[in-house]
Sequence to fold (390 residues):
Amino acid sequence: MSEQDGAQLLKMIGDGNERAMADFYRLYEKRLHRFIFIKLNDFHEASDILNETFLEVWRSAKKFEGRSKVSTWLFGIAYYKTMDRLRKNKPVLIDEDNFPEIVDETPNAMACMLNDEQGHQVKHCLETLKDAHRSVMELAFFEDMAYSDIAKIVDCPENTVKTRMFHAKQAMKHCLQGLMRGRL
Amino acid sequence: MKKDIEELLPFYVNGTLSKEERLQVTEALEDDPSLEDEIAFLEKLREEIQEQSMEYSSGELGLKRLQKSIADEALQKDPIALSRSKITKEQNWGWRAAAIAACFLLMMQTVVMLPMWKDSDLGAAGGKVLLQSSGKIISVTFVPDAREENIRNLLLTLDATIVDGPSALGVYKLSIPKDAESAVEKLRAHKTLVETADIEGRKAGQ
Fold:
């Protein structure tokens, strides 16, 4: 299903069509649940936020004007609700972009560093990223979203998204290098 | 300048840059081949992230939960429906309690009365006048919560006809045109539906 299908479903949801709501849920549920879970790291809490997100879709579908993509709008709701839950659970640093510059000690090694059995190491390093960096990296590399869409979701300027992505990448390198050194 | 280009690289890798930005990156790559290493790393990183498991799912259970939330919300918005729902819930509890009490009383009555039954008790309340029927007559009682639909299906299977009853004790007389012995066995086999079944005029258990 395409973004257009999502928009069509959203229009029907706005008219109170529950079957369209079920189709919409099935269309986005897995991606959205993953997106929420990686931030909360708690399946049940993620399920709560997922439910709240889709409930918000049910309430607000009529207000959707198509000025952004459906997925951007949907992930934006999920992001807001997730961050709100995180703020309640623990303090979140809003300015997370003053990340120290990391010098690549072995730039040539980086390209082949992820060649073999690195999936679990990538997962580990992703978990060490700050929330704001991880969100941007997931949206860019799992959802393949443009930085302009990500900016709308996380509600910050486009340049901030690019900077966060840059720092997230540097942090991943740093983490993977550390793991590689530990392995040698 | 290099940092500006580096900031574009992740979006070059995921294919979301505009034409102008892609051109900008391509030109920078020609000037600085070291950026290729950076792209190779980002491509591999993206691949690894894409391969991360999709086990995060609430599935159909999550959908049921959502549907319940939507229904609850609709109820909250409609005070009349909400009060009806509350009344229905209260009534349900009342009926449930009454049903449990009735079942208990019926069970006690059966325990007390069953040993006192005689053959004459199994006579239909309507007397001995039976409808015109062919074959043998079987006396049968059904369990208290037997459903009409199930009784009907069973009787149709046996080609049986109710020719009399129910008596005050719930005894029905069935006319069976074919093998009455086999019909009794089949009736008794439906333990969730049939309480007692016997050929008329014969003592139970014969």
Summary: The mean pLDDT of chain B is 80. The first helix of chain B runs from residue 2 to 13.
